[in-house]
Design a protein that fits this description.
It is a multi-pass membrane protein. This is Zinc transporter ZntB. One of its GO terms (molecular function) is magnesium ion transmembrane transporter activity. The chain is of the alpha+beta class and 318 residues long. It has two domains: 238 residues, CorA soluble domain-like (Beta Polymerase, domain 2), CATH 3.30.460.20; 40 residues. Helices cover 55% and strands 12% of the residues. The protein has seven helices and seven strands. Strands 2-1-3-7-6-5-4 form a seven-stranded mixed beta sheet, sandwiched between helices. The longest helix has 64 residues. It starts with 10 loop residues before the first strand and ends with a helix. The mean pLDDT is 85.
Length: 318
Amino acid sequence: MVNSEPVNEWFIDGWQLGDTPRQLTLSDCEQLEQGCWYHCQRDAAGLKQWLSRVGVPSSLVSALLADDTRPRFEPLGEDTFLLIVRGINLNKGNNPDDMLSIRFLYFKGCLISTRKYPSRAIAEARRQCEEGNSPPSLLAMLVTIIDKLNRNIETFLDPIEEDIEFYAEHQDEADSQSLANLNKRLLKIRRFLTPQRYALDDLLQSEIAGLDALRMPLLNCRDLVVRINESINFYIDQIQVINQHLGQVQSEKVNRNTYLISMISIIFLPISFLTGLLGVNIGGMPGVDSSTAFWLFCIALLAVTVFEIILFRRMKFI
């Protein structure tokens, strides 16, 4: 099990990797040791001071602690780099598409990671360390975490894909609000996954010592991000097609209703004219002295209506 995480401490967990992983304590953090992974709480008091104390340059400290950053890879000299990636926020009470940020600093032969919210991918990697089957090196651990982050994104998209496929097959049951919500979630994820692909491309092209043996799993991570991006683009295109169908159906419905109202108005226009004409009281109203005038007038109106309907049908207006 993953250890409980103190919310008011900057040091969450740490491990010295190797054949037998050794868990670090706060007392092991007085100075950086090669082969060690330090996982830290980004917004906790004391982290900035510790980073400065162990020799991390101030510019890197700012990058590790920044509130909002896009995924990127930044080489910082021989065997030193900064990598920022994003993952699905699977914490209770949070929106998954509000993607959490994980920052990695490979520095002096050790790996420092910072986060604001817990990450399931990090928790799984820590669990591997506790079970004694952690990756053999820090770079292998980094690639493992990246892979877990990407696979969590892929898993999160599965029900979204099912919803879109359902709406595509049953377009009459789709509603614009649900589609708008799906589209918004996909756009928020794509916003970070596109630069994440470029960050992994840059990492693949770097000359970091020890990375050659990990090119293939890292390439698989990059390819997975590419596939996820392509899937998201396809889902967004599907939503647009469904929205166009809904708009067309709505437009046809409005046109039918408008046409029906227009035809009713045309049919009743002559009738209204006749009733208005006979209602003009100038020199007396016609037919007032006849007991059959009203019924004859009603028959005449009915005849006019029938004539109009027959005429419109022959002209294929109705």
